[in-house]
Amino acid sequence: MPRLVGKQSHAGENVAAFIIIAAIAGVALEYIGVVNVVPGFGRDDRYSPLQSQVTNEHVMAHHER
Fold first, then answer.
1. What is the domain count for the chain?
2. Inside any domain, residue 42
3. What would the mean pLDDT of 8-24 be, rounded to a whole number?
């Protein structure tokens, strides 16, 4: 049987690796525009579904011209 007395756990290393991976994923999501926590950070050419929606105000403004 192996002796476990005196063995140190690697929990600290696992937590550090998880935090680093989570930070990389967060920065990537911010950059591609999935989340917007930092205004002005990321690509400017991202597609927003809200930009393509036509509302009643757009239709009324177009017909009033």
1. 1
2. yes
3. 93
